[in-house]
Write a structure and sequence with these properties.
Helix content: over 70%
Strand content: under 5%
Order of helices and strands: HEEHHHHHHH
Number of helices: 8
Number of domains: 1
Radius of gyration: 17 Å
CATH topology: Arp2/3 complex 21 kDa subunit ARPC3
CATH class: Mainly Alpha
Length: 183
């Protein structure tokens, strides 16, 4: 009984910390004047990848879904303090949906023990990023057409995506190496 109570407390704590992490990372916006895009450069993707890959249960994607719901009902936790249904129906909607799908996908890769192999850790981060970008591009294509969606919703994000993939993988590689050293 005590173990079950501890597990529930851990899961709730994990969810709350995950929502806070995603919310804070959404406020870290980098303006890149080279690209004409309405989609902000944030650290949300990095947080989503880490949260999703941190647990093999549904808590990673459930936390991401809770973040999405909280933003939709009006909490100013989306990029640059925004919120509301207009974010889901506007140009960023595909990315927001992609966050939930990517967090779920990342947790499934963890179930398959991808967190135990350095190559698979980096590959998981790449696949999660591609899933988010694909969802964003798909929705943006509806608004702008496929080519403009690529030029404004994918191309500008490639350098940052590479950095986030590496930054997302590093903690898992370090944890794996530490665990291997301990035996």
């Amino acid at each position: 009984m005590k173990i079950n109570h501890f597990v529930k407390q851990y899961q709730i704590t994990f969810s709350v910390i995950s929502i806070i992490l995603i919310s804070i990372s959404a406020q870290i916006v980098v303006k890149v004047p080279l690209f004409d895009t309405e989609i902000p450069f944030t650290l949300q993707t990095l947080s989503i990848l880490i949260v999703g890959f941190s647990t093999k249960k549904f808590w990673g994607w459930a936390s991401t879904l809770a973040y999405l719901i909280l933003g939709l009902i009006g909490l100013p936790i989306f990029a640059e303090g925004s919120s509301g249904l207009s974010k889901l129906t506007g140009v960023t909607g595909g990315y927001l949906v992609g966050f939930v799908l990517a967090a779920w996908f990342m947790s499934q890769l963890r179930v398959k023990k991808w967190h135990l192999n350095n190559f698979k850790i980096f590959y998981a981060m790449l696949l999660g990023t591609l899933l988010i970008l694909f969802c964003g591009w798909s929705w943006l294509s509806y608004h702008l057409g496929p080519l403009q969606a690529f030029l404004k919703g994918i191309l500008p994000f490639i350098p940052g995506a590479i950095i986030k993939i590496v930054l997302g993988a590093i903690p898992f590689v370090i944890l794996k190496e530490l665990k291997n050293k301990r035996g």
